[in-house]
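Example 3.2
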Amino acid sequence: MTDEPLSPEASLALIVEEQEAARRRLDVDPGSFLIPWGLAWLVGYGLLFLRYGPDERVLVSMPQWLPLVTLYALLVAAGVVSGVIGYKASHGVAGESAERGVMYGWSWAVGFAGFGVISSRFEPHLPDAQFGLLMGSLPVLITAILYMSGGAVWRDRHQFGFGIWLSVINAAGVLAGPGWHSLAVSVLGGGGMLASAALRHSRRS
């Protein structure tokens, strides 16, 4: 016994249903990427500010290693979460868009791998405070550049503008000096990401 062929109306309804299911799977809320990074920056750089404040003041006593270890652990976790979200969204998709997404994802990995090499090379030659400033500002610079690049590739003005914002607060924080840089990136960078995620989610809703 064979199934009866669908009527034109039923076939059209099935096509529309499948298209809508595919759109929901591929149309990822940008906030899902921003939230893990925003939390990582807010907490990680916040701890750096509390332990290594302006003029080398210790605002909250804690082990010297704790802020940086926490920051980089949170950054790795945010990278993993973003990778999983991106993979689920693009799984089974082929073509130019998928290729751009893969290349963009590798840009993050390669950029931060280069950061690790550069920072290790300069560590013996810089005072602790200046080395800490370098370790804190380079990840923000990489992130800002990649946000601007992503905004240009996908013609996303919000993403491009946020990359400019990160670049500005990073430069301003470096000029202000150790301690102030951590505070600016924590509040204006991490907090800005969380605010941006909330704004973009509300617009989608």
